[in-house]
Amino acid sequence: MPQIFHRSANTIARVSIFGALFFVAALLYLAYQIDRSPWVTQVNVAREQPIQFSHERHVAGNGIDCRYCHTTVETAAFAGIPPTKTCMNCHSQIFSNAPFLEPVRESFRTDRSIAWSRVHDLPDFAYFDHSIHVAKGVGCATCHGPVDKMPLMRKQNSLQMEWCLDCHRHPERYVRPREEVFNMNYVAPGNQLELGRKLVAENRIRKMTDCNACHR
Amino acid sequence: MKPGDAPEFWRTLAEKNGANLDELVGDEFASRLPDSFDAVERRAFLKLMGASLALAGMAGCTRQPPEQIVPYVRQPESIIPGQPLFYSTAMTLGGRATGILVESHEGRPTKIEGNPSHPASLGATDVFAQAALLDLYDPDRMQTLTYRGDILPWSAFLGAMRTVTTTEQAESGAGLRILTETVCSPTLGAQIEEILARFPSAVWHQWDPATGVNSAAGLRMAAGNDVSAHYNVESAAVIVSFDADFLACGAGHLRYGRQFARRRRPEGAGCRLYAAEAMPTTTGAKADHRLPLKPSQIEMLARALAADLGVAGVNRGAALPADAQAWLTAVRNDLNAHRGASIVIAGEGQPAVVHALAHALNATLGNAGRTVLYTDPVETHPVDQVRSLRELADAMAAGDVDTLLILGGNPVYTAPADLRFAEQMAKVRVRAHLSLHANETSAISHWQIPEAHFLEAWSDARAFDGTVSIVQPLIAPLYGGRSAHEVLAALSDRPERTGYQIVREFWQEQRGATPTGARGAIAATGASGATGATGATGATGATEFEAFWRKTVHDGVMANTALPTRAITPAGPIAAFSTAPPAPDGGIEIAFRNDPTIYDGRFNNNGWLQELPKPITHLTWDNAVLVSPATMERLGGAARPDFTGGERGQIHGSVVAITYRGRSVRGAMFPVAGHPDDVATLHLGYGRARTGHVGADRGFNAGALRTSDALTFGTGAQIATTGDTFPLACVQYHHLMEGRDIIRAIPRAELASLKKEEKALPSMWPVLTDEQEKVADYKWGMSIDLNACNGCNACVVSCQAENNIPVVGKVEVMRGREMHWLRVDSYHQGEVANPKTYFQPVPCMHCETAPCEPVCPVGATTHSSEGLNDMVYNRCVGTRYCSNNCPYKVRRFNFLQYQDWDTPSLKLGRNPDVSVRSRGVMEKCTYCVQRISAGRIQSEREGRKIQDGEVTTACQSVCPAEAIVFGNLNDPSSRVSMLQAEQRDYALLRELNTRPRTTYLAAITEFNPDLSDK
Amino acid sequence: MMTPDPVTRTPKEAHTPIAGAAGAGVPVIAPGHNFATVTDKISAIVLTRRTSLGWWFGFAIAFALANVLLVSIGYLVAVGVGVWGINQPVAWGFAIVNFVWWIGIGHAGTLISAILLLFKQTWRTSINRFAEAMTLFAVACAGLFPILHLGRPWLAYWLFPYSNTMNVWPQFRSPLVWDVFAVSTYATVSLLFWFVGLIPDLATLRDRSESRAGRVIYGALAMGWRGSAHHWHRYETAYLLLAGLATPLVVSVHTIVSFDFAISVIPGWHATVFPPYFVAGAIYSGFAMVLTLAIPIRRVYGLQDFITDRHLNNMAKILLVTGLIVAYGYMIEAFMAWYSANTYEVYMMRNRMTGPYGPLYWALLFCNVLTPQFLWSNKIRTNALLLFIISLIVNVGMWLERFVIVVTSLHRDFLPSSWGRYEPTMWDWGTYMGTIGLFLALLFLFLRFLPMISIFEMRTLVPDAKPDQGGAR
Q: Which of A35, B11, B868, C98 is most buried per CB count within 10 Å?
């Protein structure tokens, strides 16, 4: 009775043994990459907004300070999204009948809020507080990136736990002098580590790596 | 399988009225902040702020669904999203006010704390105040105004009332009757008086099972007219209680509890408590010498004591049992030794004469004016409520009542059975009932008017000592409810006035700030909220009043409105003293008591209170026929632990039939150590015919046996076992310490000689020294004083409210799966007939060397640098190994989906600072880490350390007895450090060397050497 | 049926003191067999014999039970672990009991194959194949429970160390993590060991199979085995290496499982005797299960020639020995409780004996301590029926042991206020019975499609294989 499998088939047998190992390894690597890909993290993905609001125009162009709109960033967990009223402070005067601002005016007229789609969104079991980060000298740009160069708002960082931990473990690498927090053009000095260590000491910055720092 | 009752119910209910509720919730914000919220915005805003649970428990790698941010159009000044605001208001029970502070997140009340500046609170609250929050958000509340079942607008009711007024005007209101609960609200009182003035023949009845009918009658007997009494426990060295649970219920009990605990602290002057009572109470448990007696025998005791101490003309009546005699002698001597510094207090369970005797005793002992204070009545219109209710019943029977207006309460259910109230009420032509829930009374009322919860309405009320508080709303009525003020206004000449106008105007008149002519002007401006300047009367009086008003509303108390104390002088010898008391027959007595958790049934639909273990019995979700173990045996009944749950969980009690004065009910029998023999205590408030989904089919209606001549106890009942058994949900059935060192108690005398115990035992493993632990800024710890704790359970409910702890329902409790992070254990010492009971609150101990930490495979429970034993819900996979390895068994597991994710109103009430846990994760006490974080962030922003007392845990802040103290152990001057440094400080299960951060202070006993039995 | 043929007797055996049919001297394979008969007899079961009605019947029942498991798991995942009877304080119930029980059963296979191989115990040959299969299936059943008992089973992968975006790792101090490694390693090695052992037989089946499908499938699995000297050489080495690798695992796995309890503070768990006592218990239950299966199988398939009374006898002896070790374990537990004079320990022991679960404790002593004492008797050791009954009782006993350890220790620990009880629900039973179904179903399939006895190893036992000796040893 003839053999079904030719001797050459043995090679397949041998290869399959090792192949299996490599295949598994490849799968794991793929998962690792997908986890960190923009598809998951939404990094650099600009969201569709009801109004094509440009931070570039308002920050770089008109030199408006972050805190003019994000009023509670120094006092509360939530930085604050400006009420329509804030927009109208200016836009009742300038571009007061520009068509692309109609949604703003409409909101103001009808008392219906503008529904912005959220760009920076943490899971609900992570409790983040803007005020303390600002108070300890974490610059807006450190997490949000060069907002003044973003015509459309997008995430600069993944906001994944490993990203948070990086700074919580090594604050000296990122902190800046308190007065520079809202400065969009701030560039870290060459001796950042040195400066960082100094600031960590001065501002009593703790390495908040306890679970309860973020999760309750 | 049904995952417990309550969640099941609420889920289905949400489906039923979810949408409808949504829009109602909508106008809540619309009306509260007229120009800032609308429905769309609100929903999105909930998404933003409320816990959106779809993500809970998923790994960081999960893609999140896109969310929206919906800002205000015009942001109100006071509100910063995420920052809570606190408003002062007051809650009334039996008319008496207790001042509270309510935490509000973006207009949603989320937590109730006590108001430190209110005399009845002193910063503490009871379980009812804590649970009031859940009542507010209860989806079972009456939601629409109906007339004979048809949904009608408010205007329709006003119209109907107009016709009533016109018709009644003719016969000067002869057919008009108003039935209220006890009224201590000056405004409401004035309103009713006004109506009575308008309809001279109309009658105002009061019936409120929550007020002391007997104590009022007793005072009337003692003083000859209506007065109110309160006590100054602060300066009482000896207290004798005749069936009085003054530490746990009745107006001012929070204050008494605190004063009592302070006196009994080591540095305090001490206070020996004697309690003669039937059903064991928390007060009895705190007593140094408790004497179990039948309710009827207590009168003999009181009479004997009065006679011995020289109260004139007292007929001793029947002789006392031997042990009672010994007790009596000791008490007499002790009282003699402390004239002027003692209190004799009688409980609501006792008839008027016992109260009168107590007051006579206080007078004789010279306590009156020192420890016992009398004032003019706190009620605006004190009446004998039983008589008042009987008169109403008779009038209705006679067909004299055309219109009956019932403001709150549930007389059909609570009225004594012999009045046959429902039957008589049916004869009334127009029946209107204002109520929070659709209950038995609304069932037979034509007009069913949804009542505004006290957190939704303006009002005012006096505290036990007369102090006035303004009740201000935290939120606009969720279901368009109306307050009693607004309903009564319908009978006035200006029916459209809002509660705010009514209350404010009343006080304006009181302050003489407004000539009555200017009302219209106020009506115009008043609507715009607290800013209503009394425009028309531009007088300085107005601005003054504005200042006064704002201050009063802000403080929660109206300055110096406490009633002045006065002396009472009985008109002459009190007849009742000299007449011979009824000789107690041998038969079984039954005693009726308001339920410790759901009271007279008004909290029947409140899941938090239903699931709250009742002190002493530790029963939940049901009432039972409470008897002494001996009596149970004699009656041939039994109560055995079932295999599902067992000692913790399910107890099968034999069902007995109680026949009393021709009426009969069936209930499950449950043994209570220390309960006198041949007495059955029945708790009211259960067996409801009409209530919400939570309270439906729970327990039996003891009220069906109650008659108006024997409200609180009666003799001659027959109890027969039926052979059936009924499963009771009992969270602690085993009260013996099994010779283990769990509770420590030392006589006050031995305090000095006590040696401090080392916290840590020698260990094979390297353990951090205290110095090493000091590296972190804070070392959080807690001290629980077993001497102070009186087992009131307020901490348990407070914890539940603060930490979004779900209600699991009776079925799950019977499986031993209740979720309370903090439990109050109780242990008995001594013989079953009359044991000494100790309470022990047990939260997570936050051990230095926590057994739960090393066994978690995913590191979901870890040790923080500040010594907290963190529990990370979103990391937990649910092996439950930590719980197995916890010697204190303080961890709680979400065996099923207990949290209600669907009911919108319940979402509103949650604390946004605490994750809402889903199925399959472990949870436990966190020392209220969200409060610590808030404190830390606040202080760090200000570049300072957290001050002692700046961060308080939820259990600590509500405790009337200050038994729980939390703070920083690194700071030797912090209160907790000093308490843990006390000699009597000890660690629970120290021998395991878990080195708990939560330690206990041993109880201190003040036994009377003459009574050597203990 | 087997009157030993004097011809095949060596003089040495003539003097062996142990008399009787099943003495150690009796050959481990009945006389009159040669290469061909052995091969035929075994492979026929798989290839030529038509599937008996009994097989279908048994398989149907087993398969039905396996479906019960499916339903139970579906409901469990849909609703939550709350469908089981677990509660506070008894947060572990049937799931862990069954886990430990199955893992224990899963020990015999590797022990027989690996350790007895290293000890050159030729009698193992005829039972190792299905003992290994049994091991695999038992471990498969055991492996289900640690995952199913999780509150959130879909996150079970968090127990594996992998680089995740959360930057957190498993907590290596936890015995549960050790379990993950111990059990998965054990499963892998057992599988390899079993498969490698199969290869030559798969080749045989490939060559003898009539159907094309059979030839293809067996062929693929045989991985080109041609039985050349070269192959045999490699094969022997690999097999020996694997055996060496598997041997320590036999001890390690249950040692680590025992740590789940020994590490904790709970009285009744926190005991140093646990590792040896658990390992012994595992082997005990393992051999009990082998007997429970071997006796009916050899009867049904008429394999008395291959699985001789001597096999039963030897296994019974091991049963007796391990049984005694386990008994010692119980004794020490009680002794330590008394000797420690620790309130909690003493109470725990008293509660075990007289508490609500007392009857189970006494039942367990009857099953695991009393029953095996019958095995002192040679007659009983060689009486298939009695052995079968005893092995069944021991299986039950070992399950009870785990129940007593898990439940009675938890239900009354330190604070009387949190004492409770545990009662299994229908879903507890469903899951348990379900795994038994799964186990049997797999076993039936194995019997039907693979040679349950190692053909080539049996060949080495027939006299022809030992021309130098007079017969087989």
A: C98
